[in-house]
Amino acid sequence: MDRPEAQGPPIPGRIVLSSTQIERRVHELAQEIGTAYSPDTELLVLGLLKGSFIFLADLVRQIPLPTQVDFMVASSYGNATTSSGDVQLLYKPGMSIKGRDILLVEDIVDSGNTLAQLLPLLEEQGVASIETCVLLHKRIANLGEYEPKWTGFDSPPGFLAGYGLDYAEKYRALPHIVDLGRPEDLENKNDQ
Ligand code: IMP
Ligand code: MG
């Protein structure tokens, strides 16, 4: 059931995607993913923590294939709102990815650094296949061969939060996605 946006704590920013819009799109993505693989494929869904945790949980329950789930932690942001460029893998998947069909699930593509640095690292471990599904894409980055196969929504240029995405660890639990405004303005607010 849709949680009325008016309930709960005050909403920061402006709602750009409602929980209903997200739910519909997640369902479509899951169906598209399901038809892209043979029905006996056991897909290893790898979530990039923390931002993808809600998206992954909703997506994986609707993909009409047998799946396994694992997570990774990559960090380039800290508490800032712009990428520092250097992506570190702080936690690797616990299970071997060799010979597996991998679906990497990410919350949002901004500069593209995370995917551009992470995908080659995963590929070189001898995966059978690797594709990416992102909820949001700011369309700033041109990822070439690392462009996600599935994208939920093209994102507005502001800093977004909710549905797993945070601003300084806040707002992850919002059922919708809000635009908090220009990253530069947010950082200025933080400094005060
Ligand atoms: P990229 O490496 O610059 O593409 O950034 C990817 C990561 O930065 C994502 O996994 C997000 O966690 C974070 N990020 C980028 N833009 C936003 C945003 O608007 N809101 C929240 N997190 C973001
Ligand atoms: Mg993140």
Question: What would you say this structure looks like, in words?
Answer:
The protein has about 190 residues and is of the alpha/beta class. It contains four helices and nine strands. The strands form two sheets. A six-stranded mixed β-sheet has the order 4-3-2-5-6-7, sandwiched between helices. A three-stranded antiparallel β-sheet has the order 1-9-8. Helix 1 packs across helix 2. The N and C termini lie far apart (about 40 Å). The site of inosinic acid has 18 residues, from strand 5, helix 3 and strand 8. Inosinic acid binds next to strand 5, helix 3 and strand 8.
Percent range of helical residues: 10-25%
Bin the strand percentage. Answer: 25-35%
Count of DSSP-assigned helices: 4
Our measurement of the CA-to-CA distance between the termini, rounded to an integer number of angstroms, reads 40 Å
Order of helices and strands: EHEHEEEHEEEEH
Number of strands: 9
> What would you call the structural class?
alpha/beta
Distinct small molecules = inosinic acid, magnesium ion
Low-confidence stretches: none
The biggest beta sheet is recorded as: 6 strands, mixed
Give the CA-based shape. globular
Radius of gyration: 16 Å
Q: Compute the average pLDDT.
A: 89
State the assembly state of the protein chains: single chain
| Spatial strand arrangement across the major sheet | 4-3-2-5-6-7
